[in-house]
Amino acid sequence: MSSDDWKRQAAEQALGYVEDGMKLGLGTGSTAAKFVDLLGAKVKAGLKVVCVPTSEATRAQAAALGIPLATLDQHPALDLTVDGADEIDEELRLIKGGGGALLREKIVAVASDRVVIIADGSKRVEILGRFPLPVEVVPFGLASTQRLIFQMAADAGCDGDIKLRTGANGAPFVTDNGNHIFDCSFGAIDDPEALDDALKLIPGVVESGLFLGIADVGIIAGPMGVEVLSAIDSDFDEEN
Questions:
Q1: Which of 86, 30, 25, 80 has the alpha carbon at shortest distance from 53?
Q2: Dist CA 204 CA 199 (whole Å)
Q3: CA angle 71, 74, 76 (to 5 degrees)
């Protein structure tokens, strides 16, 4: 089986957490897109849900499938969000933002009673940091913000290249919120909590791709089958 097949397996299992009448958050990325496709088929078959997408790309995909959509202002509290991850460790700490939607993804996730993360086995890591950490920043004062990220990350035990993300045309990548992203190649992040706290002190930083204490369940599909990880303080998986 391919990674594409594993992503679909994880997405299929996540469907088991969806109940009729739920308000759902829809994630962004290749794995989340599998879930949206499967959800669209369920909606066509009669499932009643209303969904808040975490990006314009997900909004367009869901709309094309006939999935009822709303905004977080219309439904500020959600029942469940299903999203992917660029990395996930055994404590359900994540790196997200490879697709550039980390800010909306985190807002929607935190607004949800429960969060299920789906991924293929390649995203499972012992220590976060193999994938460059995305940090969303405002366009004003980029050089100053980059300098402060470097300094504050060093204080948290992280060091490495910090590069402004660019698009195919070489221009700075622009998020759905009109911001830019620095991709930080820190390598092993031994203390994600310390790094997250440090980045939050920088005025130009909008949000980082560290998702800590947010996920309730991780569904990881790979050559050995489907593995389900549950947060220590969550009884979500036990209810399903």
A1: 25
A2: 10
A3: 90
Q: Which two tokens stand for residue 92?
A: 């359900």
- 105 among known catalytic residues: yes
Using an 8 Å Cβ cutoff, are 131 and 86 in contact?
A: yes
Q: Per residue in 75-134, pLDDT tens? A: 999 999 999 999 999 999 999 999 999 999 999 999 999 999 999 999 999 999 999 999
Q: Output Rg (C-alpha) for the chain, integer angstroms.
A: 17
Give the three-class secondary structure for 214: coil
From the candidates 87, 105, 136, 207, give the one annotated as an active-site residue.
105
pTM (two decimals): 0.94
pLDDT at 238: 46
pLDDT tens-digit readout, 129-170: 999 999 999 999 999 999 999 999 999 999 999 999 999 899
